[in-house]
Task: inverse folding
């Protein structure tokens, strides 16, 4: 599953650390998700979508 988190985060001028803080996770977690090394929980996916002002469907796409 590919994600668009970095592409959506950068225009909002959010660092990985800032996004992590808003979602209640570590920067390393955000990094791992962006690099397709970790799939977030459903709750975290909804939190990411909320902070990035999008939907879960827009954040992730199946390969």
Result:
């Amino acid at each position: 599953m590919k994600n668009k988190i970095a592409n959506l985060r950068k225009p909002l001028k959010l660092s990985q650390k800032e996004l992590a803080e808003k979602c209640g996770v570590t920067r390393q977690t955000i990094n791992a998700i962006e690099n397709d090394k970790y799939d977030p929980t459903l709750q975290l996916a909804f939190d990411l979508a909320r902070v990035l002002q999008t939907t879960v469907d827009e954040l992730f796409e199946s390969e």
